[in-house]
UniProtKB/TrEMBL annotation, chains A, B:
Signal sequence annotation: none
PANTHER family hit by this protein: 5'(3')-DEOXYRIBONUCLEOTIDASE
Name of this chain's protein: 5'(3')-deoxyribonucleotidase
GO biological process, one term: pyrimidine deoxyribonucleotide catabolic process
Gene Ontology MF term list: 5'-nucleotidase activity
Origin: domain of life: Bacteria
Active site residues per record: 11, 13
Family: Belongs to the 5'(3')-deoxyribonucleotidase family.
Length: 179, 179
């Protein structure tokens, strides 16, 4: 029966983990400057903050992924999706080796109902084959063969060739109407 | 150009990492008893050694994967495959969380020519989509949609519904003749 369910690949950073909030929070902590979500809109990850490469620096710092807040509505949404879908968490984590164990601990903490069998940490997502993909990165969605939902993030505001969801309620609505 | 290459998913344990040799070596070290490769033939992973669950216990012990020997011929074979294929390392590592960082370090040590972009650690391999898969486990090969090569291991000797390769030379031969 399980194999009859349609499959969906859910990204972590920027989709179920609110790393945007975490970047803003760490930036305030380390630089004493308040950056708002609005300030970030339309920027890319390289120039999001005045200090070049800051996002990659934070992403390489122990504790960053472990203490990231959960995206609003993500827990409830994944429980709903799991009623009808085989849900896989697919994270491009391999670039940041330290993040592997942190991400697994984070998932077990906040999403204990996701089995380890359904977790995938990869480099690129080119060989991931599911019916749906929910992701905030164009590079992942563009290479994907199934149906795509682009989860809103500051770095994707100028792209409109994937169906956009601004939050988890919109993801559920889109999938329910089988867009 | 890169995307035009056919893709191949290569398993780690029992395929490029000689965990069989590692089990035998650790068993001798901890129990003082010599078990040979021949002794293991036809057994499954649960009853491979007199002590039930020993393989899972070893797999959960720090250092097990980090110090596993490289499978004979694997380095040379992967270099050959990379000339014609986009090679992905796909390991079902998620069941043993400690193994994640050890496996990544092991790969970087013994296969430094494999990019982090081409490494995947997963629970099951159900959503992995490549043209070929080289694996020793029936459960991975049976769910796979592309061409399969079953790498010989003690636990798969009684299965014959996948093309068997007894070593890396045979893998290369099979792929070259596009079996």
């Amino acid at each position: 029966m399980e194999n009859m369910k349609k499959t969906i690949a859910i990204d972590m950073d920027g989709v179920i983990a609110d790393v945007e909030a975490q970047f803003i929070s760490w930036y305030l902590r380390d630089y004493g400057i308040i950056i708002t979500r609005e300030d970030l809109q339309g920027r890319n990850e390289d120039n999001a903050f005045p200090e070049k490469g800051l996002i990659r620096k934070f992403a390489r710092t122990p504790g960053f992924f472990l203490s990231a807040p959960v995206m609003e509505g993500a827990v409830e949404a994944l429980k709903i999706l799991m009623e009808d879908f085989e849900v896989y968490i697919v994270s491009a984590a391999m670039e940041f080796p330290l993040s592997l164990s942190e991400k697994l601990t984070w998932l077990n903490t906040h999403f204990p109902f996701i089995s380890w069998k359904n977790i995938i940490f990869c480099g690129n997502k080119n060989i991931i084959n599911t019916d749906y993909m929910v992701d905030d990165h164009i590079k992942n969605l563009d290479n994907f063969k199934g149906k795509t939902i682009m989860f809103h993030a500051f770095h994707n505001v100028s792209y409109n060739h994937h169906t956009r969801a601004n939050n988890w309620n919109e993801v559920i609505s889109l999938i329910k109407q089988d867009f």
